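Cont'd.
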Amino acid sequence: MICAHAMFLRRSFTSKTVPEALWKLGRLNHIAIATPDLAKSASLYKNILGADISEPQPLPDHGVTTIFVNLGNTKLELLHPLGEKSPIQGFLDKNKSGGLHHICIEVDNIQNAMKEVKANGIRCLTEEPKIGAHNKPVVFLHPKDCAGVLVELEQS
Amino acid sequence: MICAHAMFLRRSFTSKTVPEALWKLGRLNHIAIATPDLAKSASLYKNILGADISEPQPLPDHGVTTIFVNLGNTKLELLHPLGEKSPIQGFLDKNKSGGLHHICIEVDNIQNAMKEVKANGIRCLTEEPKIGAHNKPVVFLHPKDCAGVLVELEQS
């Protein structure tokens, strides 16, 4: 009994000495593609490549119209400017044909993820998470701190 | 018995009248990110974001060194130039910090996929598939025909 009790205590102490992760990285939620011609891009994925796609969804608060392309394990998000101050207009001005705009990775605790990335010198583009296109809190990380890639973290 | 036989026949005819697809689009295999600093980019995903990553793999035939970042449902492929004629050097010359380079989607029959995309006016960058980094046949589609995105199709 003493031996078993000692083992129990050791296990308890062992597990306590391992700090619990404050947040965990999850799966790739989507890849966003900005396009100057939403219907043509949607047709490429639906009619030529044979993927399932969603109906166009106007998101005035985000300045985009989106169509999701379902690839089974993840999604492409086709983005087209909506309104006069669309956040992707500048990107399309530089990339006339469109192009890969950002990737979105899920995290289970966005506040703790933000604290940790900031502590490691990765700039967040907003001080607080915003509510993203899926009605979940999101934050974008500065592309210059992420190998030139605009990375969105989304609370899963 | 007659009824069951009739149902069997109907099912047979029904399935025969549906033409079999000559190829099918599969899952997103990976997103490729070109980076001027492979160690720093790998550290971002491993040490700051906490993802599992592979060892660096030099691929002299492809002019790149790669590191794969496992995101559970798909992978990021970090690419760094190897040798003097690396196919990603031009991209890095234009994008000094690095950036999203291409996406790779699986297909179950690359020859039939190529025939169909060509018939729909999508240019392939090579006449025949090449053997890609995973030792499987791959072909790249012209970015100008794919909403500005370099799309790789890989035989699954």
